[in-house]
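We modelled the chain as a single entity of 121 amino acids. Its sequence is:
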Amino acid sequence: EVHLVESGGGLVQPGGSLRLSCAASGFTLSDHGMTWVRQAPGQGLEWLSGIDAGGSETAYARFLEGRFTISRDKNTLYLQMSSLRYEDTAVYHCAKPARDNWNSPGPIDYWGQGTQVTVSS
């Protein structure tokens, strides 16, 4: 059974930084491209970023304007977030995309329960 578990969220002031982590079980994380998505209150899932299985290629939603960085090691997926804004408040999920479509929005095979990020002064 596949499980994705995110951690690292919390309350942060505007302009601050957070690093999210995602651990996987039930499949070999390093064999698959992975993505980060988020869901703000009352909104749908929003694709943020993706990384290929080898960790050498990445893709980002344009609206992030270079503020987030995705990375991975053999066992964990990361999302480094900086210059956080009020509008970044959301539940952040790591996700295993369908058909290894990691570099753009698309169907998801599995996603975790998410970690809450709240940007507030």
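As a brief sanity check on the tokenised model: The chain has a mean pLDDT of 96. The chain is about 0% helix and 50% strand.
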